[in-house]
C-alpha cells in the first residue's frame, strides 16, 4: 500500500504542476489575444479526471485491488507515456494547455510528437487512464475511466479541431495526420 500511496501522491503533484503551467500559458496567450473554446465541457473533463483519482484510491485502498503479476507491463507503458507527455508539453511550449486556448492566426505546432500524430497528449491521457489502474489491479477503475475518456474525447477533439480549422492553418499542417497513431 505504501508504494501505491507514493505513486498516487506523485501523480497528483504532477497534475497540480501541469495546472500551474497551463494557467501561466493561458495568461500569456490571452495577453496576446487568444480565445477559449469548448469551455462548456471543460468542467466535466476536470470532474472526470478528479474522480479518476478518487476511484483509483477507493478501489485500491478499500476494495483490496491487488497488483497483478504482470504489473510491470502497464508500468513500462506508463513510463513511456510520461516521456511522450513531456515531449508534447515542451513541443507546444506556451501553446500547451488543459483548456482549448487558441491564438487566432498562430502557426500550428508541427514538431516533436506533433510531427507524427495530431493529439499525442490525448494519447498519453488515454494510456494513463488505462494503465495506471492496471498497475495496481484496479480493473473497474480502468474500465470505467477508459469508457468515460472515450466519450469525453469525442466531444473534446471535435471542439478543438473545429476551432483549430477556423482560427489557424490546422488543416494544411495536420490534415493528413492520424489523430492518435502515426500513419502506416
From TrEMBL:
<keyword id="KW-0489">Methyltransferase</keyword>
<dbReference type="InterPro" id="IPR007269">
    <property type="entry name" value="ICMT_MeTrfase"/>
</dbReference>
<feature type="transmembrane region" description="Helical">
    <location>
        <begin position="130"/>
        <end position="152"/>
    </location>
</feature>
<keyword id="KW-0472">Membrane</keyword>
<keyword id="KW-1133">Transmembrane helix</keyword>
<dbReference type="GO" id="GO:0004671">
    <property type="term" value="F:protein C-terminal S-isoprenylcysteine carboxyl O-methyltransferase activity"/>
</dbReference>
<keyword id="KW-0812">Transmembrane</keyword>
<dbReference type="GO" id="GO:0032259">
    <property type="term" value="P:methylation"/>
</dbReference>
<protein>
    <submittedName>
        <fullName>Isoprenylcysteine carboxyl methyltransferase</fullName>
    </submittedName>
</protein>
<feature type="transmembrane region" description="Helical">
    <location>
        <begin position="75"/>
        <end position="96"/>
    </location>
</feature>
<keyword id="KW-0808">Transferase</keyword>
<dbReference type="Pfam" id="PF04140">
    <property type="entry name" value="ICMT"/>
</dbReference>
<dbReference type="InterPro" id="IPR052527">
    <property type="entry name" value="Metal_cation-efflux_comp"/>
</dbReference>
<feature type="transmembrane region" description="Helical">
    <location>
        <begin position="41"/>
        <end position="63"/>
    </location>
</feature>
<dbReference type="GO" id="GO:0016020">
    <property type="term" value="C:membrane"/>
</dbReference>
